[in-house]
């Protein structure tokens, strides 16, 4: 039974298709998709349900298991997603910048970031104009060309006083600052990765320590810079795993980046609560576990779709959710309202992805794509030069230049030896000329003459050997001859040696009359 089952299992293994090759980093797709969903949930649970005292026992149950033990009751469990996004940016964007270069990278990032941002700001302005109140940070949402421009370019997070139209966009200004810093140190990262990371860490430390020295706008800039250590941790993980820096250097730089992130809490740069350090630690743990488990993860379509739409989900979920809940509540119960709001959010996200984000990605790739060099044109053969005109009394020598190269010297051809005339046959003693130019019977054949059939007077003939080819290839190497072992005559047994009186010693037969050479097999008369 076992012997019969083994061929079947081998045949099934051969017939089963090979697993599809992964084209994406699966743990990053899973992390981005889950992070976008966690932010979506937290912005429904905390700014709306908990802040407005809307009763939802299922939300209380989830919060008791997630946010409360993690000391994230003010912002929710979605707070873990933000440092995870920062880690992904440092891990993924750094090799992209090294591959694309400063100009192409700047153009690519500009289109990818600001095209969806322009759509979201335009939608927010439209909702404000029709008196549908989008979410806000509690600050005045003044509409004028300047505020629209600053919110579109994300410069509003660096200008005091702030006018914020899209509250969730504060993470994007951190991304933009990281892109600018990365482009500034890109020449160092190309040659000395360790030095580039050291310059980035020094820059963060200097900005944070001077936050109160140059006015409120510089203080806002320092607040955004205080989140860059999370991105540097992702960059350090990339440099260490790709062996751009030694392991001990990566551990040292990782500890410095972590210390700078914690230092922001010590000097009080304006964070909401004290859970930021725990959120980063949890995000780093999840990131490393996903990276080590990458070989066992399979690429799934659901994770790819969520990852590709994570930016649109992040920018649009709060805007669409708050506007629809304001229209539905309290007339519609909360569970039913959520069943209406969640599909509507994903519908708007899909429209944004198909008609704004994905076309912007295609445009960014097309504009930042390095054109390939054109293929070399096929070489047209040059017309042969006209034959030289010979003058009377002068000889012209033609040289074929196509055979002459610089790499391989041309070897002059060996002159062909003149053909030697065939020797005349010499007469034999009986006065007859031998046929076919064969030598006399008593004279061995010469080396330069092929052996042929030699007639005999009494009708006998020698065996003829095949004649050698007349043309000799002088350039070919002679075949290596294997030495033949010496012939050994069979000897008599020891007991019969040195005994002259054998039984058949004196008898003679017809075979004794055969000649002792190979010239003839004819019997000689007695």
Automatic annotation (TrEMBL):
User: Which residue ranges does the record assign to the Acyltransferase domain?
Assistant: 26-348
Q: Where are the transmembrane segments?
A: 77-98, 110-134, 154-180, 192-212, 218-238, 245-264, 276-293, 313-328, 334-356
Pfam families referenced in this protein's UniProt entry, alphabetically: Acyl_transf_3
Bias (Pro residues) ranges: 373-390, 412-428
Q: Where is the composition biased (Basic and acidic residues)?
A: 471-480, 509-526
Q: Which UniProt keywords apply?
A: Acyltransferase, Membrane, Transferase, Transmembrane, Transmembrane helix
Top enzyme class of this protein? transferase
- InterPro entries per the UniProt record, alphabetical: Acyl_transf_3_dom, Acyltransferase_3
Residue ranges of region Disordered?
Answer: 364-526
EC assignment: the record states 2.3.-.-
MF (Gene Ontology): acyltransferase activity
The keyword Transferase belongs to this UniProt entry's keyword annotation: yes
Signal sequence extent: none
PANTHER family under this entry? Answer: ACETYLTRANSFERASE, BLR2367 PROTEIN
Q: What is the designated name of this protein?
A: Acyltransferase family protein
């Amino acid at each position: 039974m076992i012997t019969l089952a083994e061929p079947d299992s081998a045949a099934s293994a051969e017939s089963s298709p090979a697993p599809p090759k992964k084209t994406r980093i699966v743990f990053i797709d899973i992390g981005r998709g889950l992070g976008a969903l966690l932010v979506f949930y937290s912005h429904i649970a905390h700014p709306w349900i908990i802040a407005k005292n809307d009763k939802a026992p299922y939300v209380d149950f989830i919060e008791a298991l997630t946010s409360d033990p993690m000391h994230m009751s003010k912002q929710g469990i979605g707070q873990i997603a933000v440092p995870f996004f920062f880690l992904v940016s440092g891990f993924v964007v750094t090799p992209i910048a090294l591959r694309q270069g400063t100009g192409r990278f700047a153009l690519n990032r500009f289109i990818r970031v600001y095209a969806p941002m322009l759509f979201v700001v335009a939608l927010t302005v439209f909702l404000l104009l029709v008196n549908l109140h989008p979410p806000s940070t509690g600050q005045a949402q003044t509409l004028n060309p300047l505020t629209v421009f600053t919110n579109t370019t994300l410069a509003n997070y660096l200008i005091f006083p702030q006018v914020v139209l899209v509250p969730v966009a504060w993470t994007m200004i951190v991304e933009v600052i990281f892109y600018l810093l990365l482009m500034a140190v890109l020449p160092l990262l190309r040659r000395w990765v360790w030095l580039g990371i050291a310059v980035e860490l020094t820059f963060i430390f200097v900005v944070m320590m001077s936050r109160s020295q140059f006015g409120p706008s510089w203080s806002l800039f320092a607040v955004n810079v205080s989140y860059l250590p999370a991105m540097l941790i992702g960059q350090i993980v990339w440099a260490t795993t790709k062996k751009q820096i030694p392991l001990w250097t990566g551990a040292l730089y990782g500890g410095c980046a972590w210390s700078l992130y914690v230092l922001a809490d010590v000097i009080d740069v304006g964070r909401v609560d004290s859970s930021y350090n725990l959120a980063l630690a949890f995000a780093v743990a999840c990131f490393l576990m996903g990276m080590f488990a990458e070989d066992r993860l399979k690429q799934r379509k659901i994770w790819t779709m969520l990852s590709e739409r994570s930016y649109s989900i992040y920018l649009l979920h709060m805007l669409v959710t708050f506007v629809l809940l304001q229209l539905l509540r309290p007339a519609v119960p909360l569970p039913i309202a959520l069943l209406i709001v969640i599909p509507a959010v994903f519908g708007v996200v899909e429209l944004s992805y198909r008609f704004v984000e994905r076309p912007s990605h295609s445009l960014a790739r097309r504009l930042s794509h390095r054109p390939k060099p054109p293929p070399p044109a096929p070489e047209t053969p040059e017309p042969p030069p006209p034959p030289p005109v010979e003058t009377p009394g002068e000889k012209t020598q033609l040289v074929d230049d196509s055979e002459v190269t610089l790499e391989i010297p041309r070897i002059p051809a060996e002159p062909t030896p003149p053909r030697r005339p065939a020797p005349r046959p010499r007469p034999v003693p009986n006065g007859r000329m031998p046929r076919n130019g064969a030598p006399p019977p008593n004279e061995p054949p010469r080396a330069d003459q092929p052996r042929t059939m030699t007639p005999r007077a009494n009708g006998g003939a020698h065996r003829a050997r095949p004649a050698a080819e007349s043309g000799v290839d002088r350039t070919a190497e002679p075949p290596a001859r294997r030495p033949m072992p010496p012939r050994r005559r069979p000897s008599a047994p020891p007991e019969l040696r040195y005994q002259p009186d054998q039984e058949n010693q004196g008898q003679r037969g017809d075979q004794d009359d055969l000649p002792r050479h190979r010239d003839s097999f004819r019997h000689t008369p007695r």
